[in-house]
Amino acid sequence: MKTKKELKDEYKQMKFPMGVFQVKNICTNKVLVDNSLDMESKWNRHQMELKFGNHGNRDFQKDWNQYGAENFVFGVLAELKNDEGENNVNYNLELKTLQDMVLQEFEVKNLY
């Protein structure tokens, strides 16, 4: 059995998918576009905030309450690869830039 320290070290070595994702309301076609160093965790955070009724985006929260969770779909728009050789990469800035590029490329207009 592994020690807590070994488990903690393994967790630190894990690479989570980072990038830009959308949550689409299939009833209205409106989308929430966001980015994260760990997309799955960020989506889980959005869901918890919505479940408890305290999401920061009031329009998104209102539609979630009206249409229900089953009418929202999570999808990855672009993924950012981890540059293991680079130590000075500002991934938050890279993700913001990638999100801006995705919004322009797909001409996303129906945003929350």
UniProtKB/TrEMBL annotation:
CDD domains in the cross-refs: GIY-YIG_LuxR_like
Domain of life: Bacteria
Gene3D superfamilies associated with the record: GIY-YIG endonuclease
InterPro entries in the record: GIY-YIG_endonuc_sf
Protein name as catalogued: GIY-YIG nuclease family protein
Species name: Flagellimonas lutimaris
